[in-house]
């Protein structure tokens, strides 16, 4: 098997074996360094103009997870998993483009002049958008990073479940989340105590339209 085929096979098994797991071993733990590895690998996700407008609020403490429980519809995985990541979308994330592009210059991957022009133009463009549009862009990026968190966790032997079933206003209030950070989803990470159930998918023909054919 060629190297490319082997890595495609490994990737496919991570993707195919990830299922939303809702029952966790409450005694299992995940180290802070493993969580950091997962989050930093996930942060390699693409984002609009590389703004990386995702922020992570990590609950790695059973007492805090307990506090989160009623906010997340008492979903048991909140307390039984080893950690919960609240993925937040920073609708003003574009304001850090100067910092991001400076890092690229320091690494020698972007010329200084280009970085400065790109930063100035991008900040002006994102700044001219409505709050709703800024939020929408940051939410898309938040979805991409969330998927990568789940796959990076799975590749390291951890199970996950994404959760939209929570009270976003209460989450913001309870944990002092600034108004510019919009909750995307919660992701429980831990060791499954029971396998996630298999789920069905629509046939590809029903979700794919080749060259514009069949769209109604
Ligand atoms: C945005 C989003 C919100 C979700 N919210 C919840 C939730 O609150 N609780 C839950 O148990 N599962 C939740 N799920 C998991 C879905 O039910 C699950 O992904 C779907 O049934 C497909 O199953 P699979 O993840 O095992 O492939 C959510 C998934 C997504 C993407």
From TrEMBL:
Transmembrane segments: none annotated. It holds the Pfam family Nitroreductase. Keywords: Oxidoreductase. It comes from the Bacteria. Residues 15-191 form the Nitroreductase domain. InterPro entries: Nitroreductase, Nitroreductase-like. PANTHER family: NAD(P)H NITROREDUCTASE YDGI-RELATED, NAD(P)H NITROREDUCTASE YODC-RELATED. Belongs to the nitroreductase family. This is Nitroreductase family protein. It comes from Cohnella hashimotonis. The lineage of its organism: Bacteria, Bacillati, Bacillota, Bacilli, Bacillales.
